[in-house]
Amino acid sequence: MTQMLPSAAVLGARAFAALAGLNRFSDEPGKLTRLYLSPAHKQAAEWVKGAMEVAGLTASIDAAGSVQGRREGTVPGAPAVLIGSHIDTVKDAGRFDGNLGVVAGILAAQALRDAGISLPFPLEVVAFGDEENVRFPTHLSTSEALAGHYDPTWLDARDAEGVKLSDALVAFGGNPAGIPALARKPGSIRAYLELHIEQGPVLEAENEPVGIVTTINAQSRARVRVSGEAGHAGTVPMALRKDALTAAAEMALALEEIASGHELAVGTVGVFRPHPGATNVVPGAVEFTIDYRAPRNETLAAMEAAIRARFGEIAARRGVGLDIAPYARAAAVPMDAGLQDAFATGISRTGSNLAARRLPSGAGHDAMTVAAIAPAAMLFVRNEKGISHSPLENMTEADAGIAIRVLLETILALAEAAK
Ligand SMILES: [Zn+2]
Questions:
Q1: CA distance linking residue 103 with residue 97, whole number of Å
Q2: Are 218 and 364 in contact (CB under 8 A)?
Q3: Which domain holds residue 294?
Q4: Which of 5, 25, 191, 223 could form a disulfide with 40, with the two C-beta atoms 3.0–4.6 Å apart?
Q5: What's the mean pLDDT in 323-334?
Q6: Based on the domain organization, do 196 and 223 belong to the same domain?
Q7: How far is the CA of 244 from the centre of ligand 1 (A)?
Q8: CATH number at residue 143
Q9: Residue 24 included in any domain
C-alpha cells in the first residue's frame, strides 16, 4: 500500500506550500512573530483547523488554545497515535520551528486518507500554542494541559503589558475552566510523534536529512556572582588586585573545559555583567549566568560538582567571593525506545541511503511533557547551518519531504505492529 502514498518530493512541495499559507499569520508585519493567544495565533489556529478538516480530520480549538484534529481508526477503543508540535513562535522567528511538525501531521493524515488507508488506531494531529516561553512566563502549558499537569496558577501569569493569561485565553476564545478536562486518560495514547527542525548543525555536518532523537537533554541554569574589590585602574598594582572580571573570565573558561570533557554535553555563559563597568576601574563584581546541558542526569550532576569545585578553587586562589544560585533545572527526558526503532524502520523504508542517525536534543520540546503520560519520540530534520530562532532558519524542501515520508512510513509500521 506504500506505493499509493505521495513521494517525498511531492510531500516536500506540499509542506512548503502549506507553510507559506500558515506563516502569513504574524503579529508583526514583515516578520514571523506569533505569540501565545495573540491575534496571529488565533488566525493561525483557525487556518490549522481548516487544513485539518480538509485532510479529513474532525478538528476543534480546545480550551487552552491548542488545535486538535482526529480521525477514528478501525479498532474501537484503540489508543491513538498523535502527531504534534507547536504554532507559536519566538519574535522574528524562523518558518519551520514548530510549524513544520504541525504541517507534517496534517499532510500525513491527508496522504493516508487520499490513499484509502485505514488505520487500526485513531490518528490525531495537535498544534500546541505555548512552547516558546515568550509572551507569558509559562512554558509548554498547552501540552502540559494534554498531559494533565497544568498548574492552575499559570492562569494568573501576566505578559509584559500586564495582561493576565486567563483573560488572554478568554479573549482568544478559550476556556480556563475547561482545561482540566483536556487531560488524556492514561493508556489512551499509543504514541506521540513530533517532527521538528534540528535547531543545530549536527545532521548537516553528517550529511543526513533526518535524525532520531534519543533524549531531551537534562539542563541546569544558575546565576553566578563574583565579588572582588573595585579599584583605580591606574594605581592598584597587579599583585594587590582582587579583579572580579578576570576571576569570572577564568570561570567561564573552566565551564567550557568541563563541558568539553563530557560527551554530548554543552556549557554556555550567555550573560556577563561587570560592575561598575568603567574603563578606568578594576571591576569590583561580576554577575554572569551559566547554562549547561547533557543527555544523562548523572552527567549533569558530575558537571555541577565540577563547576562548584573549579569555580571555588578559582575564587579562593584569587581572593574573591563566589555565590552560585541555581534557578532552573530539568531532568533528561529519554524518548521511547520502541518508537525510536519505529522511526528507524520508517527511515529504512524511505530510502536505502539514509542512516538512522540518533542524537540528543539540546532544546526543550512539547514531546517532553507528553512523554510523562505516553510513549513519545521525535524526528529531527536537517537545519541549514544549525540556525534557528531567526528568520535565517532554513531547510530544503527535499529534506522536509523525506521527513514527512518517514513519518508516514513510521505510522504504517505502527499500524502493522498493532494488527
Ligand atoms: Zn520548536
A1: 11
A2: no
A3: 218-330
A4: 25
A5: 95
A6: no
A7: 37
A8: 3.40.630.10
A9: yes
**Residue in 88, 62, 86, 79 with CA at minimum distance from that of residue 124:** 79
Distance in Å, CA 222 to ligand 1 centroid: 23
Same domain for 67 and 113, yes or no, is yes
- What CATH number is given to the structural domain containing 285? 3.30.70.360
Boundary residue ending a domain (330, 364, 385): 330
Distance 97 CA to ligand 1 centre (A): 4
Residue pair 128/142 in contact (Cβ under 8 Å)? The answer is yes
Output the nine-digit C-alpha cell for 71.
480521525
76-127 tens-digit pLDDT: 999 999 999 999 999 999 999 999 999 999 999 999 999 999 999 999 999 9
Taking a C-beta distance cutoff of 8 angstroms, is the pair 307, 254 a contact?
yes
How far away, in angstroms, is 371 Cα from ligand 1 center? 16
* Grid-cell match 594605581, residue found: 235
Name the domain boundary from 277, 308, 330.
330
> What would the pLDDT profile of 24-83 be if each residue is shown by its tens digit?
999 999 999 999 999 999 999 999 999 999 999 999 999 999 999 999 999 999 999 999
Is 2 within a domain? no
In a domain, 3, yes or no: no
**First vs last C-alpha separation in the chain:** 15
Q: pTM here?
A: 0.92
Task: Give the DSSP letter string of 290-351.
Answer: EEEEESSHHHHHHHHHHHHHHHHHHHHHHT-EEEEEEEEEE--EEPPHHHHHHHHHHHHHH-
What is the Å distance from ligand 1's center to 402 Cα?
A: 19
